[in-house]
Amino acid sequence: MATEEEDPRTHSLPPYPQMILAAVAASGDKDGTSLSAISEYVESSYEGQLPPSHASLLAAHLTRMTEAGELLLVGSVYFRPGPEAP
Length: 86
Hints:
- Helix 1 packs across helix 2.
- This protein has a single domain (14-79), classed as Winged helix-like DNA-binding domain superfamily/Winged helix DNA-binding domain (Arc Repressor Mutant, subunit A).
- The chain contains 3 helices and 3 strands; from the N terminus they run αβααββ.
- It has 86 residues and is mainly α.
């Protein structure tokens, strides 16, 4: 039987905004990062650790971050605000 130290699900996840910003940065795509690309990055980075409500949490945090100006949504892709953003 696995101990708590060996169980990857017991490790704490970074906050969703941190995971989202990491996904956008990792994509390096000047044309923006789609919701599916962000989700795939987070899922592959934290495989087996995400809650069942991951899709809903991701969507909610993307909405909040966009409303707060932490991300820009242009069409269906996300950008970090800055001089290179559209």
